[in-house]
Design goal:
The complex is a heterodimer of chains A (161) and B (224). Chain A is built from 8 helices and no strands. Chain A is an all-alpha fold. Classes of the chains: A mainly alpha (161), B alpha+beta (224).
Chain lengths: 161, 224
């Protein structure tokens, strides 16, 4: 059954965006209702495409939920000339620890980080999804990574500084 | 390039973690999807909408009560005028309170019976307009003082068509089709519009309609 197979992973995905169980459940209700409603229009194109399709719906619903409560365009766009912070140490952590650190990020930074790093969207796609400029998207990702690096240093991870 | 590989590592780790079983209200959420329940946040909107509906119903009821009270006052005043009309009919020159009237799209044209008004210098004539379903108001096209009483009487009274008899509280008068054979006025008989006779009852019948009315007949009544 579709729900039994994908609901756990989709719930966790939604939770990564909204950080609240009740809100994530609401998103799952709306998203799966849409999935069942438009399943006839789904075209199978290979292994994993159904999960990707459902994930896309869940991510979109999560973003719609966040857009009602948060203005993503409030963060100013920065001209970033310095290199992007290195998160090698973050990649070495346990998945739970990484997720916990991501969840500590402010909404705007966390959302862009989730979309870029975890879902794999590029800045052009993110700018359209959040109705922001590409520069803002880049800026938010840069700031998210900078915060994560700062926390890692604070926790005692060696970055050679 | 290095960043890309770090991002890829993080992505894989998170996606693997998200495939692990997690404790949440899976069954409850499924039931809500199955029963097409709206998300929790939608309930707030439902509650707000219900409250708005309740307030609007209260407001409407309050207005209705106010309207009923106003109508009651108007009807009381009308009854007093009817009483005064009965008392003073000899002085006004109208021996009977029968009048003929014409129904048209715009309302009822009312003409006092000529014979009964022959002592009057002017022909009393009123055009009674519907300004709401079942309720009539009148506009004079004659300024004769004798007409005023009748006009006043007819104002703000409901015209009820049977079989709405159960709604009738007090019957004040009746409008019924005039038999063409009994028409005295031959000029009127040539008119294409149907001719009706208005009869205001001297005694007001409470509760039920005093006459068995046909579908084409109307009663002027105080309605509940």
């Amino acid at each position: 059954m579709l729900y039994m197979r994908f609901s756990d992973v989709m719930f966790r995905t939604a939770l990564r965006y909204v950080r609240n169980n009740d809100d994530a459940e609401d998103i799952i209700i709306i998203a799966f209702s849409k999935v069942f409603k438009s399943i006839k229009s789904f075209n199978y194109s290979g292994k994993g495409c159904l999960e990707a399709w459902i994930r896309k719906i869940v991510v979109n619903e999560s973003l719609m939920f966040l857009r009602k409560r948060y203005n993503f365009s409030l963060t100013e766009s920065l001209d970033i000339s310095i290199p992007e912070p290195d998160l090698t140490e973050l990649g070495r952590l346990e998945a739970e620890d990484i997720l916990e650190m991501i969840n500590q990020l402010p909404t705007g930074y966390r959302t862009v980080f989730n979309l870029y790093v975890i879902e794999g969207y590029d800045h052009q796609e993110i700018s359209m999804m959040l109705n922001i400029s590409e520069g803002t998207s880049r800026s938010q990702l840069f700031k998210a990574k900078a915060i994560l690096k700062k926390v890692l240093i604070k926790e005692g991870y060696n970055y050679g500084t | 390039m290095e960043h890309k590989s770090t991002d890829e590592t993080i992505r894989k780790k998170i996606q693997l973690l998200e495939r692990q079983p997690v404790k949440w209200k899976k069954e409850e959420v499924w039931e809500r999807i199955e029963h097409n329940h709206k998300p929790r946040s939608a309930w707030y909107y439902h509650v707000a909408a219900s409250l708005a509906l309740l307030l609007s119903a209260l407001f409407t009821y309050n207005n209705y009560k106010h309207y009923r009270h106003g109508m009651h006052l108007k009807i009381s005043s009308l009854q007093q005028r009817l009483g005064a009309f009965d008392t003073n009919k000899n002085q006004t020159g109208i021996n009977h309170i029968d009048s003929s009237c014409y129904l048209s799209d715009q309302g009822i044209s009312l003409n006092h019976n000529k014979q009964k008004l022959k002592r009057q210098s002017k022909k009393a004539s009123h055009k009674i307009m519907f300004d709401a379903p079942g309720v009539i108001a009148s506009s004079d096209d004659d300024t004769g003082a004798r007409s005023d009483t009748l006009t006043t009487v007819l104002q703000e009274v409901a015209i009820v068509q049977p079989p709405r008899q159960r709604e009738v509280k007090m019957v004040i008068g009746v409008i019924l089709p005039e038999d063409s054979a009994n028409r005295n006025d031959t000029r009127r008989a040539t008119k294409t519009s149907p001719r009706f006779k208005l009869k205001l009852l001297k005694e007001h019948h409470e509760g039920v309609t005093p006459l068995r009315l046909q579908d084409s007949e109307f009663i002027i009544a105080r309605i509940k």
